Amino acid sequence: MGRFLGWMAILLLVGNTVKSFAAESGKSEETADGSTATTPPSAEPYGADWVRIGRQALGFLVLEHGFRYLTEEGTRHPHIPFFRGFVNSLNNLHGWADGDPFLVSYVGHPMQGAVAGYIFAQNDREFLSVEFGKNKPYWKSRLRAAAFSWAYSEQFEIGPMSEASIGNTQAFFPQQGFADQVATPVIGLAWMIAEDSLDRFVVKRLEARTANPFVCLLVRGGLNPSRSLANVMAGQPPWHRTDRSGPSKRNGDRIFSAEKPRSASDLPPSPITKFEFMATARTEYYLGPDARGACIGGGGAAAFRMTPNWQFVADVSGCKLTRFGDNLSGDSLTYTIGPRWTANPLRRWTTYSQLLIGGRTLTHEEFYPARKVQLEALAGQNGASLDFPDHARYTRIAEHTGLTVSVRGGVGVKLSPAIQLQVADLAYAYSWHGKLDGTAYTHALQFSGGLVLRIGTW
């Protein structure tokens, strides 16, 4: 099964790339002025094309699992029967960190979420022509894409054709955290917005100023890597765009639409929004003589406005503890609620302060490789292999949950009526629990930044 997925992934990528060049040349036609234009799709103008979405998402899924099979020994030989390994993976889910390095969890997985989002967006026929900016259709389109990205992420992590079923990843230490299931859709949405803004304000400006097709194609693909892969999954060239044409050898000086992006201007005061959703990156530093390292991660929050200046906030965040050394890892999961006060909410630049109260769960996991080797040798002598219940025999888990209170202040700037950038956020948190394995986590400084989606203003 795994070997089949691996070769199918390679064939799919090569086949779609070759097909994309043929599709580009076959879909462009010469206009009256000699330029080329891409023929609009003949599909229904409204609704999502679920057949194409399913086919392209399946291709992306096969590509990902094929790469896992070709590069991960544990995926090829999990040593656990399929159904038992799947169930063990689901039962073992807990905490935040999953053992992956920072670039995998907070760059690679968000890019995966962005690719899944673009797969949906390029087949969401009612919103094919949307462009980043102050317009309701764009933000509605990206929220719909983020919902599909979340569903794809859950399938990739714990679905029937997932890391949990192919390789039983979460059944083994330390791959049991929820970090990827949060980071993939949440930061993936922010990644899509970043690529969309770069396409409008950087790529299109360059296309309007140069006639070199190779420079334009490199910039299109390089500054929009997630969209480029989604294009390949659809059988299109990586540089494909629905709102402007591709390269033309016959008319090199007019290969792209020369439409200039609208100039930015000061935003008018926005109405006060009732609901806000926040996606943040967060780093915690622990204070005291027995503290050690930092905790790097992120989270999400929702805010409901009760008065023009007061909001009720619910915040859930998690992070991976660092500087533990070999064979020891840890994570922190925080869940808090409380009031927030915002000064001058109608202005573009706003300041806020909040008091949040809730709980924090700290987890340490220590891995004993020598003990695992001994257990594997003993199991081999009996003609068996280590199973999920044996995990507890070569790892030690220490966990503590306690009350936590944080006092937070920050600065935000509205980029549009729908979106706000959380420029800087500083908090002090105090937790009522003892030391965990001799490490103190009572006092912590938290630094955050991220994006805020303002519902009801667009």
How would you describe this structure to a colleague?
With 458 residues, the chain is an alpha+beta fold. The chain folds into 2 domains: 2-254, no CATH class; 275-455, Porin (Beta Barrel), CATH 2.40.160.20. The protein is built from 10 helices and 10 strands. A hairpin with a 4-residue loop joins β8 and β9 (419-432).
List the helices and strands and how they pair.
Elements: H1 2-27, E1 28-30, E2 36-38, H2 50-71, H3 73-76, H4 82-91, H5 102-121, H6 136-158, H7 179-207, H8 213-223, H9 225-233, E3 275-287, E4 294-305, E5 310-321, E6 328-343, E7 349-367, H10 369-381, E8 395-414, E9 419-432, E10 443-455
Antiparallel strand pairs: 1-2, 3-4, 3-10, 4-5, 5-6, 6-7, 7-8, 8-9, 9-10
Helix pairs in contact: 1-2, 5-6, 5-7, 5-9, 6-7, 7-8
Q: Could you say how many structural domains there are in total?
A: 2
Number of helical segments? 10
In spatial order, strands of the major sheet run 3-4-5-6-7-8-9-10
Unreliable parts: 1-44, 248-270
Give the SSE order as H and E letters: HEEHHHHHHHHEEEEEHEEE
Q: What is the straight-line distance between the termini? A: 48 Å
Rg calculated over all Cα atoms: 25 Å
Oligomer: single chain
Largest sheet: 8 strands, antiparallel, barrel
Tell me, rounded to a whole number, the average pLDDT. Answer: 78
